What does this fold into?
Amino acid sequence: MQYNGGSVIAMVGKDCVAIASDLRLGVQSLSISSNFEKIFPVTDRLYIGLPGLASDVTTLREQFRYRVNMYTIKEEREIEPQAFAQLVSSTLYEKRFGPYFIEPVIAGMQKTPSGSYAPFIAATDLIGCLNFAKDFVVAGTASEKLFGVAEGLWEPDLEAEDLFETISQTLLNAVDRDAFSGWGAIVHVM
It folds into this structure.
């Protein structure tokens, strides 16, 4: 997980959700790029963050894109975040004996039975063990620092602007203390 580095965090707000990552691509302590994407849109209301080995990021991004397209064709509807989280989990579990070196973070807006949307976040480990949360999830080389800063800054029912500020400050303060993450950040708020 530390070969290429990188960190991702997702946070829940009041009727909104945010996902953020750093932009560094490195080979251990050597920085190669400061514009490496780790967050990818799955649908209009769903994003996945993929911190870990860069070649596995590219491989899984394409594999998830393929599987989501197949789901859309077969089911004739857009995939919901909960179903996508299960798809991610089963995809990673298929390779449990030779795992992808990726810790996916999923953030989206889940459709409720009443027809409205509720924030949804989840994360998995290397073999697809899902972790659902009501506040925030983290992954990557700065995860310990992200946990510490997020616990200090996150509050329930943050509005979208406050959520943006909280997740931005959390990510920037945590990756400043991690040699394998950094070089800027990108934040998506839904």
About this structure: The longest helix spans residues 54-75. The helical segments are 54-75, 81-94, 143-153, 160-175. The mean pLDDT is 89.
